Amino acid sequence: MRKEEKAKIIDQVAAQLENTPNFYVTDIAGLDAQNTSDLRRACFEKEIKLVVVKNTLFIKALQQLGKNEVADTMTDVMAGPSAIMFTTTPNAPAKLIKEFGEKAGKPVLKGAYVQDCPYIGAENLETLVNIKSREELIGDIIGLLQSPAKNVISALTASAGGKVAGLVKTLSEKE
Length: 175
Prior knowledge:
This protein has helices at about 5-20, 35-45, 55-65, 70-75, 90-105, 125-130, 135-155, 160-175; strands at about 20-25, 50, 85, 110-115, 115-120. By secondary structure, the chain is α+β, with helices and mostly antiparallel strands.
């Protein structure tokens, strides 16, 4: 591969990293053609971009973006054949790896960089599956904020709520 081709690939990977900063490094070596096709189709359906790129070019793309600490962490993980899964939904690749791995035995998680935290090794797969997306966290927060308001409203509208409302009305009339 010529130097110009390598530079072009590094630029493409760096652009992908800027657009989707969450990525998973997996081992898909040994998958037959049918399973590889099924994996790529599943990735497409879940809006995960699966890319096979030379390990050194991926590390250079990280360094080009100034993510030297991430590059240092991922260097050991990138040993051997690797495929990169880029995503905007932090836990989608983990769920796919778990689901697909149970059927075909691969892909195997080598490492991940999700929400500015590195996860090294397949033992972190369950942790990554349980990470909540931004939308799920916002929904949880809204639910927590609505809960006290619902309790107050239900107390005021309950049978005892008529008495409370009457007391509030009496107190306001005295002023």
